[in-house]
């Protein structure tokens, strides 16, 4: 009896010690967190807050311009941890040349800024940096799908870089720069939301139709003039075995030239609603290299549960943006990679004969990888923001 009581007493003491250790550890962790935020705030002149909130504004009110948005949709909300909040998203920083060209007139020198510019615009800004007063504007996201040789001019100003290449990864000037994925275009994401029930919540919680239940074996929607890889893909498509085509359905829409106006309103282009429906009903999406191997199509396909097919062909290996998918490959992207588009017919025939469970397993591997990859890249972005700017009080007066 006494031994039982003794054992119970020892167990009670151990439990108390465990609780005390947890509380002490938690207090220590909280103190470290407060110290980090305090130090960051002191170094950058901001008020300390546990929740870091940034106001991303693109509008006509120049006085309220604080941060340029560089996303085509609110990736921060979809994949972020909540430590950084994006209040408003616009494509202006990418496409609106007038806004981008007058960036220095729009910056608020008292607040941090993020400029999502094509490299040419950033080169102009950096070369003229002695004449613009934005000391807190230190973080840049640069888009350059052509991998220009003189992009080193802005490397010291860039914290994130879109459209990577192996040549840049080997360049010491770029080693500190993280890759930021393109994600889904903002207009296509709007169509995705409508397709998935009309609300943001429904779209984000959407479970894609299993590959084995989809009506289209593949889709091919692209402009052929962009690269030799696309021309080769078209030639292979034109020569597909009639028996294969008779067993399956597909959607092929090839344009000869890129329209200068908005593609969604251009004659001969697939509109956003139809494109969305096609992606959500296709097992595979052909994604030949364009100006750069990375493209919105890849992300739109994965988001819709369609498996992108990519050829690591001569165009991929020899263009200025050589090995442009290196960050994805390094992270174990489970895409079907072909050596050339000549392998496409046998690849498709293989999957036509495969068991439904096999194609569903491949789809799941890719969608799971996609989710993990996007969350990791977004966390990197949030971490760099906090490291660069400390914490920033979000004021609602700018809305």
UniProtKB/TrEMBL annotation:
This protein's UniProt keywords: Membrane, Transmembrane, Transmembrane helix
Chain ranges of the RXYLT1 C-terminal domain: 211-377
Entry's Gene Ontology BP terms: protein O-linked glycosylation via mannose
Parts of the chain that traverse the membrane: 6-25
Pfam families: RXYLT1_C
Origin: domain of life: Eukaryota
Keyword Transmembrane helix: yes
UniProt-recorded Gene Ontology molecular function terms: ribitol beta-1,4-xylosyltransferase activity
A cellular-component GO term for this protein: Golgi apparatus
Name of the featured protein: RXYLT1 C-terminal domain-containing protein
């Amino acid at each position: 009896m006494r031994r039982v009581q003794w054992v119970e007493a020892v167990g009670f003491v151990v439990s108390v010690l465990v609780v005390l250790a947890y509380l002490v550890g938690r207090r220590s962790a909280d103190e470290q967190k407060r110290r980090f935020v305090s130090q960051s705030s002191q170094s950058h002149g901001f008020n300390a807050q546990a929740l870091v909130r940034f106001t991303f504004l693109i509008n006509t009110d120049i006085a309220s311009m604080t941060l340029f948005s560089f996303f085509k949709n609110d990736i921060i909300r979809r994949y972020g941890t909540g430590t950084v909040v994006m209040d408003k998203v616009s494509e202006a920083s990418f496409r609106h040349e007038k806004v981008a060209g007058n960036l220095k007139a729009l910056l608020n020198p008292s607040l941090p800024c993020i400029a999502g510019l094509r490299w040419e615009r950033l080169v102009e800004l950096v070369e003229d940096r002695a004449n613009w007063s934005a000391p807190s504007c230190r973080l840049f996201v640069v888009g350059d799908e052509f991998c220009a040789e003189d992009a080193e001019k802005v490397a010291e100003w860039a914290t994130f870089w879109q459209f990577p290449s192996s040549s840049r990864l080997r360049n010491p000037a770029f080693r500190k720069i993280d890759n930021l994925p393109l994600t889904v275009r903002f207009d296509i994401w709007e169509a995705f939301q409508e397709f998935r029930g009309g609300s943001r919540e429904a779209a984000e919680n959407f479970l894609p139709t299993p590959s084995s239940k989809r009506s289209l074996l593949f889709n091919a929607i692209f402009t052929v003039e962009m690269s030799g890889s696309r021309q080769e893909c078209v030639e292979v498509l034109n020569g597909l075995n009639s028996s294969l085509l008779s067993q399956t359905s597909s959607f092929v829409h090839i344009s000869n030239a890129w329209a200068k106006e908005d593609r969604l309103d251009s004659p001969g282009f697939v509109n956003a609603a139809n494109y969305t429906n096609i992606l959500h009903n296709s097992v595979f999406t052909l994604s030949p290299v364009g100006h750069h191997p990375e493209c919105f199509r890849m992300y739109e396909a994965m988001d819709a549960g369609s498996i992108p097919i990519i050829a690591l062909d001569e165009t991929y290996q020899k263009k200025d943006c050589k090995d442009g998918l290196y960050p994805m490959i390094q992270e174990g992207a489970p895409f079907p990679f072909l050596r050339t588009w000549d392998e496409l017919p046998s690849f498709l025939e293989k999957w036509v004969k495969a068991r439904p469970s096999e194609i569903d397993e491949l789809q799941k591997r890719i969608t799971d990888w996609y989710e993990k990859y996007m969350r990791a890249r977004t966390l990197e972005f949030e971490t760099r923001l906090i490291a660069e700017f400390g914490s920033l009080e979000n004021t609602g007066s700018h809305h």
